[in-house]
């Protein structure tokens, strides 16, 4: 599986009159096989960093290398293609498309560019749904599911195409404690057992104990990085 | 899958789908209704020419429409008969008169005289009796559409036109002119009613021999008769329709109301689809984040527009067919030529796609980065 390398990545935003730097030059290597958590207060730049890693936002400076390829300057269509092949996303809200069944929502992740999902892909979708206890919901509408079930369905959607990189934005914030733990355990298992890059943005302290690596950001800068350091309780190790 | 997603969204977002459907149905129904009335009126404009069963018409010179010809000399009939291309020639006399209704009042009519026994230019569809009724000197036809106006004169009713005794011999079905009530009568009766000078006709109808080139024959007749106009039946029909269309305000009026109907449809479709896309903005951002390109989002929006257009066109045509069926045989002019329906469907679909462009613009603005908070 691919690892991710961020070389001097920075991002500026402008309101038309002045330029504001929201992410200062950042160097990171994110490896497969571990659960990486990006933490920090609101406005710290963690979502911006996740967006750049996810190729939905271009950095103002620096390079993002996936495998051996610089993907930080790709055009929109090329970036969409890389996202389709290499990335899986779990959002803060499950963001399932109302009107589509759970199975159709899951299949959308491989068919968004118009391809018809293969039978094998349908079977894999059903297997994944079953593995997360959702087999009975395959033909149900998202509105009929609980928040935790929807989030698990969104994880299935993200995993269906076997992405090398799984990016999760506050996946537990909308869930109760029990559902949140279930989701984080699943993400941890995916990272370790399937040797994927799993990056989770969260300020939920319940997530930190599961992190293999905890990166803390403040005011657009990485202020601590606990690579291979176990984080105890909700406290942040420095 | 994009089409499936579009279909599911259309089915799920019922209120906005219903709104957009209303726009398409409005276009098909309103424009279709306007066009059917327009084509119905066009038929009335040239009704005598279209049903004349002739290949060509000789009329007074510089004719601008079939209803406004001056009288021409009877000698043109003999000259036309002398042409080797002509199979037969028959005179037609059109005049104005007052029809006395059974209750004693009068109605202004156009009285059309055709010569026995051929009765060229005479009446066509009959509700009661048939054209042989006109073989009787005093017999006339009235039309079912004018029945109430003329006081419901049954067959065998004896009355007057222009102070001359006539008898209703047959009732036609749909023989109505643009300028009002048409009553057909034998040639000599019209001559008497309209007090036409002897040796004068309103027009001469010609039938060419089989296999004759009509345009060539008409050109020969024109060069031989410079004092009058010679038209093929199709030419005279077009000339008459164009005259009324451009000189009576009908064209402008129908063009305006049709344009308004199309604009209303576009606005309804645009607004409802725009609102729908706004409601789905996050879904489009999700599609982009999952790897969808802008053209994939466009495909979903256009698929939605096409689905709505397809269903809307179907509903619109069902309603239009019901209206045309209900007004068939009534005094409301309505006629839809077969080539107009696919044209109207195509226009409605194009308009629907145009209406979805505003929504598409909004959908394409969906930033994949917006899915992260």
Output the keywords:
heterodimer, A: 238 residues, alpha/beta, 6-stranded mixed sheet, 4-stranded antiparallel sheet, disordered C terminus, B: 373 residues, alpha+beta, 2 domains, 4-stranded mixed sheet, 12 strands, 50% helix, elongated
Q: Would you give an account of this structure?
A:
- The complex is a heterodimer of chains A (238) and B (373).
- Chain A has 238 residues and is α/β, with parallel strands linked by helices.
- Chain A has helices spanning 46-53, 76-86, 102-111, 119-131, 147-159, 177-193, and strands at residues 4-14, 19-30, 34-39, 61-66, 69-70, 87-90, 165-169, 197-201, 213-218, 221-225.
- In chain A, the strands form two sheets. In chain A, strands 6-7-8-3-9-10 form a six-stranded mixed beta sheet. A four-stranded antiparallel beta sheet of chain A has the order 2-1-4-5.
- In chain A, β9 (213-218) and β10 (221-225) form a beta hairpin.
- The longest helix of chain A has 17 residues, at 177-193.
- Chain A is globular.
- Chain B is an alpha+beta fold and 373 residues long.
- In chain B, 50% of the residues lie in helices and 19% in strands.
- In chain B, the strands form three sheets. Chain B has a six-stranded mixed beta sheet, sandwiched between helices. In chain B, strands 5, 6, 7 and 8 form a four-stranded mixed beta sheet that branches. Chain B has a two-stranded antiparallel ribbon with strand order 2-10.
List the SSEs and their pairings.
The complex is a heterodimer of chains A (238) and B (373).
Chain A lengths: L3 E11 L4 E12 L3 E6 L6 H8 L7 E6 L2 E2 L5 H11 E4 L11 H10 L7 H13 L15 H13 L5 E5 L7 H17 L3 E5 L11 E6 L2 E5 L13
Helix pairs in contact in A: 3-5, 5-6
Chain B lengths: L1 H11 L1 H32 L1 H4 L5 E5 L11 E2 L1 H7 L4 E15 L5 E9 L11 E3 L10 E5 L14 E4 L2 E9 L9 E5 H7 L6 E2 L1 E6 L5 H11 L3 E5 H15 L2 H30 L1 H9 L4 H34 L12 H25 L9
Parallel strand pairs in B: 4-9, 6-8
Antiparallel strand pairs in B: 1-11, 1-12, 2-10, 3-4, 3-11, 5-8, 7-8
Helix pairs in contact in B: 1-10, 2-8, 2-10, 2-11, 8-11, 10-11
């Amino acid at each position: 599986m691919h690892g991710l390398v961020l070389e001097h990545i920075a991002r500026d935003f402008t309101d038309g009159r002045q330029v504001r730097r929201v992410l200062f030059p950042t160097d990171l290597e994110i490896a497969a096989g571990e659960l990486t958590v990006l933490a920090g207060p609101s406005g710290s730049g963690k979502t911006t960093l996740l967006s750049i890693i996810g190729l939905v936002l271009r950095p103002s400076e620096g390079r993002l290398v996936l495998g051996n390829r610089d993907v930080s300057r790709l055009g929109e269509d090329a970036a969409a293609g890389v996202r389709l092949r290499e990335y899986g996303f779990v959002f803060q809200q499950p963001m399932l498309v109302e009107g589509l069944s759970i199975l159709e929502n899951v299949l959308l992740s491989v068919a968004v560019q118009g391809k018809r999902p293969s039978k094998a892909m349908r079977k894999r979708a059903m297997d994944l749904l079953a593995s997360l206890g959702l087999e009975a919901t395959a033909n149900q509408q998202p509105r009929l599911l609980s928040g935790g079930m929807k989030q698990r369905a969104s994880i299935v959607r993200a995993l269906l195409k076997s992405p090398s990189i799984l990016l999760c934005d506050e996946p537990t914030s909308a869930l109760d404690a029990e559902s949140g733990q279930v989701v984080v355990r699943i993400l941890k298992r995916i990272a370790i057992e399937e040797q994927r890059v799993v990056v989770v943005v969260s300020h939920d302290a319940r997530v930190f104990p599961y992190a293999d690596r905890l990166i803390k950001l403040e005011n657009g800068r990485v202020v601590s990085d606990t690579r291979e350091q176990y984080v105890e309780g909700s406290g942040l190790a420095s | 899958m994009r089409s499936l997603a579009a279909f599911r969204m259309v089915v799920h977002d019922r209120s906005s789908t219903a709104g957009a459907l209303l726009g398409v149905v409005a276009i098909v129904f309103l424009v279709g209704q306007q066009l059917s009335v327009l084509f119905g009126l066009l038929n009335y404009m040239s009704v005598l020419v279209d049903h004349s069963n002739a290949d060509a018409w000789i009329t007074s010179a510089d004719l601008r429409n079939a209803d406004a010809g001056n009288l021409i000399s009877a000698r043109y009939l003999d000259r036309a008969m002398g042409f080797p291309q002509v199979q037969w020639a028959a005179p037609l006399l059109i005049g104005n008169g007052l029809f006395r209704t059974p209750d004693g009042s009068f109605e202004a009519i156009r009285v059309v005289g055709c010569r026995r026994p051929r009765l060229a230019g005479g009446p066509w569809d009959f509700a009661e009796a048939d054209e042989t009724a006109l073989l009787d000197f005093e017999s006339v036809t009235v039309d079912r559409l004018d029945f109430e106006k003329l006081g419901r004169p049954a067959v065998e009713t004896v009355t007057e036109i222009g102070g001359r005794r006539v008898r209703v011999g047959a009732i036609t079905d749909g023989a109505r002119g643009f300028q009002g009530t048409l009553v057909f009568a034998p040639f000599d009766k019209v001559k008497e009613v309209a007090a036409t000078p002897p040796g004068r006709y309103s027009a001469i109808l010609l039938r060419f021999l089989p296999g004759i080139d009509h345009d060539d024959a008409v050109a020969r007749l024109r060069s031989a008769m410079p004092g009058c106009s010679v038209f093929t039946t199709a030419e005279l029909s077009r000339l008459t329709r164009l005259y009324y269309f451009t000189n009576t305000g009908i064209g402008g009026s129908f063009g305006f109301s049709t344009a308004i109907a199309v604009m209303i449809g576009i606005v309804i479709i645009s607004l409802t689809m725009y609102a729908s896309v706004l409601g789905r903005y996050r879904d489009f951002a999700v599609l982009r984040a999952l790897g969808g390109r802008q053209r994939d989002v466009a495909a979903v929006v256009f698929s939605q527009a096409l689905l709505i257009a397809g269903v809307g066109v179907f509903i619109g045509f069902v309603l239009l067919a019901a209206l045309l069926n209900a007004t068939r045989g009534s005094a409301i002019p309505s006629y839809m030529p077969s080539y107009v329906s696919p044209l109207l469907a195509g226009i409605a679909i194009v308009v629907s796609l145009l209406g979805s462009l505003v929504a598409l613009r909004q959908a394409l603005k969906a930033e994949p980065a917006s899915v992260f908070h």
